[in-house]
Design a protein that fits this description.
This protein is of the alpha/beta class and about 240 residues long. Helices cover about 50% and strands about 15% of the residues. It is built from 9 helices and 7 strands; from the N terminus they run βαβαβαβαβααβαααβ. α4 packs parallel to α6. The longest helix has 29 residues. It is globular, with a radius of gyration of 17 Å. The termini are far apart. The protein binds NADPH dihydro-nicotinamide-adenine-dinucleotide phosphate (NDP). NADPH dihydro-nicotinamide-adenine-dinucleotide phosphate binds next to α1 and α7.
Length: about 240
């Protein structure tokens, strides 16, 4: 009997870290991948402390070479990747009229192109194994739009399109591809938002609280489980009801 292997991008902190820890508790071997190896090692230590298997890798999803090298190394060491969670993501907010081309490009490169490059790396192995799960971490902003986030909204809406296209291409191989659209989650990404904006967002959430990274991790755990084997091409909102 083998453990299934889950590769989580942007796992050094925030939502990615919670996903890595949750999947390890569900019996997956985890690949913790993000640009800074020291930060990945801290998460890997937490995983090992709860008797899980963790491997760490430098991964910059903006670089096709880095992506190839990271997935190549994983296949060398683990021989299989059963689950890919495309979680790496950034914001570079600003009104569209003044947005710098570099801010548009970087957000698209990390949030959307990066997810595509990573998916391309795992699909051949999943097709051979006739089993695979891909979960793309999109956003409520990709569904509803958001003033001041044209780049981010476009990248996250793009992820939803990518999810549905891959789900259609891969269904016959028993590979499911789904997206999660988190709402307002307490991580480094949201901690410096202006107080006024935080209060406005909170007032629009029926469950009247910010989400926790673990709320997203629980949804990932479900989507990669056997219980979700007949769910593909779905966008699961985990947003406290802020967008319905
Ligand atoms: P954080 O800013 O806390 O973490 C982002 C992660 O992405 C870090 O691990 C970071 O690595 C990694 N990363 C950044 N650039 C790259 C890169 N070029 N290659 C690989 N990894 C990279 O964000 P969150 O945990 O809040 O967000 C995780 C995901 O959830 C993102 O896709 C985000 O868009 C999405 N999301 C978040 C929401 C929220 O409210 N927080 C709401 C909706 C969606 P490093 O530590 O080295 O910087």
């Amino acid at each position: 009997m083998f453990n299934r292997v889950a590769f989580v991008t942007g796992a050094s902190r925030g939502i990615g870290r919670a996903i890595a820890l949750t999947l390890c508790r569900s019996g997956f071997d985890i690949v913790v991948a993000s640009p800074e190896i020291e930060k990945n090692e801290e998460v890997a230590e937490e995983i090992r402390a709860c008797s899980g298997e963790a491997m760490t890798l430098n991964l910059d999803v903006t670089s096709p070479e880095s992506v190839k090298a990271a997935f190549g190394k994983t296949m060398q060491d683990k021989t299989r990747i059963d689950v890919l969670v495309n979680n790496a993501g950034i914001t570079r907010d600003g009104l569209a009229v003044r947005m710098k081309q570099t801010d548009w490009d970087l957000v698209m490169k990390i949030n959307l192109n990066g997810a595509f490059l990573c998916a391309q790396q795992v699909l051949p192995g999943m097709m051979r194994n006739r089993w695979g799960r891909i979960v793309n971490i999109s956003s409520v902003v990709g569904q509803a739009g958001s003033a001041g986030q044209a780049n981010y909204a476009a990248s996250k809406a793009g992820l939803i399109g990518l999810t549905k296209a891959l789900a259609q291409e891969m269904g016959s191989r028993n590979i499911t591809v789904n997206a999660i659209a988190p709402g307002y989650i307490a991580t480094d990404m949201t901690k410096d938002l202006p107080e006024e904006l935080k209060q406005k967002m909170l007032s629009s959430i029926p469950l009247a609280r910010m989400g926790k990274p673990e709320d997203i991790a629980a949804a990932v755990k479900f989507l990669v489980s056997e219980d979700a084997s007949y769910i593909t091409g779905h966008v699961l909102a985990v947003n406290g009801g802020m967008y319905m």
